[in-house]
Write a structure and sequence with these properties.
Layout: H1 3-18, E1 50-53, E2 56-61, H2 68-89, H3 91-103, H4 112-119, H5 127-137, H6 143-150, E3 171-174, H7 178-186, H8 197-202, H9 205-208, E4 213-216, H10 217-245, H11 249-252, H12 258-269, H13 280-294, H14 304-312, H15 324-330, H16 339-353, E5 360-361, H17 368-378, H18 388-399, E6 412-413, H19 414-457, E7 470-473, E8 479-482
Antiparallel strand pairs: 1-2, 3-4, 5-6, 7-8
Helix pairs in contact: 2-3, 2-5, 2-6, 3-4, 7-10, 12-13, 13-15, 16-18
């Protein structure tokens, strides 16, 4: 075995021996963790947050990769409780501490040599690197580093005197109520702030929602904001409920026909002990009414037994039920439903929006893909307002995926199809014009290039000076010369 590898193996063996009195359990408790950690109301970390396993006897906090100040606090905490062995094992801690030592931040003085070692892969460490590493991290973190590690984390370093106060660390006391605790449970992601990721990771509403708990100051502000918003919403809901309870019967049934009133009475009478038993025919009729509304068909005839029951009901507390068609329209097929299912759904819904002045047609199959692409580009720029059919097709594209998006071709407004073909023709004309401009430009460039090449080939005509004779020889070797 090479000497360097043997040295690293011995180092890890020594580290294991140092921690050999640690129990080999997967979940740390007060009895199994022996790294000097003590639970405190001023620290969000508890014994059960430390992980210990048979293959890794050094306790580590159960945390994902952290960034910024959170990574700083975590690295210093790892160093404080685990020493050189923990830093050696924890890659995130080495990465963070190398930056701190290189920049002279995190309460540490600059040490480029140690920073350079931490940046290396551990398998590339020399014997000298390993000795320097152990010499440096076998010491406890300096007071300045512990003070910096307190910020955003809390007083988690036992009773070390260098720790900052909880106020300086960014915390304040907060009296949780059942209401604010429920808000904290519901808004866990909203209440996650940079620099307090460790607190948010370990916050447990079941145990931490108490009076006088230490909570990060920005989280307290957000909790108060959410609490005020919820109370305001509850006040408005109570006022609306009080107003609705006092409405006269004429206002309750305004704009409703007899079928809608009967359906509302059945809908609210089911599982309501204060309402007399609904006739069996009433439930069957309600199911038929729902299908009729979805298919935009006439209201089915009301059986006599149901009619008598409806007439006997009081309308003083009547509330209309949701239109079955609205429910059907808003509950689209699942994303993995096939194209036929989506197309039938589109045809059913679009049938409700068709009018004599707004006819609908299917998009020709050969143009379907281009139409869906065109419509997808229109959904962010087109003003729909009261054009419910347009908005519905936009919603279909937003909720379908892949091939199922072609279901918009099953039925579309004729005006939409006309605009699609108009845009296609215009785009084709623009492409043709652009092609013509491109070809003309290419011809111009070719002509200019040809002219330039002619210039390169140009040579001046031979024109000897007038003072020199111009001669030639004949076949009899006689030379004839011209002087003019």
């Amino acid at each position: 075995m090479p000497f360097k590898t043997l040295w690293i193996t011995l180092t890890l063996l020594v580290s294991s021996v140092l921690w050999s009195n640690t129990s080999l359990a997967f979940t740390g408790t007060a009895e199994t963790i022996n790294n000097g950690f003590v639970e405190s109301p001023e620290c969000p970390i508890r014994y059960e947050h430390w992980l210990v396993s048979e293959w890794r006897p050094i306790p580590f906090l159960n945390l994902p990769k952290l960034y910024g100040n959170d990574a700083r606090s975590h690295a210093i905490l790892t160093w404080f409780y685990g020493g050189a062995a923990a830093v050696y094992e924890r890659g995130y801690a080495r990465e963070t501490l190398s930056k701190c030592l290189e920049n002279g931040s995190c309460g540490l003085e600059k040490n480029r040599k140690i920073a350079k070692i931490l940046k290396k892969d551990r398998g590339d460490w020399s014997d000298r690197d390993l000795r320097r590493f152990n010499d440096y991290f076998s010491q406890s973190p300096p007071d300045e580093a512990i003070a910096e590690g307190t910020v955003g984390l809390g007083r988690c370093f036992g009773d070390h005197p260098a720790q900052k106060s909880m106020e300086e660390a960014g915390f304040m006391r907060y009296d949780f109520t059942p209401e604010s605790c429920e808000i904290a449970q519901k808004n866990a992601y909203t209440l996650t702030f940079s620099q307090f990721a460790i607190y948010s990771q370990f916050f447990n509403p079941k145990t931490d929602c108490i009076k006088g708990a230490y909570v990060p100051t920005p989280i307290v502000a957000k909790l108060d904001e959410l609490l005020a918003k919820q109370r305001e919403e509850e006040r408005w809901a109570a006022r609306i409920a009080a107003y609705r309870a006092k409405r006269p019967v004429a206002e309750r049934i305004k704009g409703l026909n007899g079928c809608q009133i009967a359906y509302g009475l059945i809908h609210h009478g089911i599982n309501n002990p204060d309402v007399s038993r609904i006739p069996d025919a009433g439930v069957r009729w309600a199911l038929a009414y729902e299908q009729a509304r979805i298919k935009d068909e006439a209201c089915p005839l009301i059986p006599k037994a149901l009619s008598n029951w409806v007439q006997a009901q009081s309308l003083k507390t009547f509330e209309p039920a949701q239109d079955p068609f609205i429910y059907y329209r808003n509950n689209m097929p699942r994303g993995n439903s096939n194209l036929d299912h989506w197309s039938n759904y589109v045809r059913t819904v679009m049938h409700h929006y068709e009018r004599p002045d707004n006819p609908h047609n299917a998009v020709p199959a050969e143009h379907c893909s281009a139409f869906a692409t065109w419509l997808n580009g229109k959904k962010h720029s087109q003003k729909t307002d009261a054009r419910y059919d347009w908005q519905f097709l936009f919603d279909v594209l937003a909720n379908s995926s892949g091939r199922t998006g072609l279901s918009v071709c099953a039925q579309a407004p004729a005006s939409m199809i006309y605009q699609f073909f108009s845009d296609q023709r215009l785009a084709q004309q623009q492409r043709a014009a652009a092609q013509r401009r491109f070809e003309a430009e290419q011809k111009r460039k070719q002509a200019a290039d040809a002219a330039f090449q002619n210039l390169l080939r140009w040579k001046p005509s031979y024109n000897p000076p007038a003072s020199e004779p111009r001669c030639y020889r004949r076949d009899d070797i006689t030379e004839i010369c011209f002087q003019n």
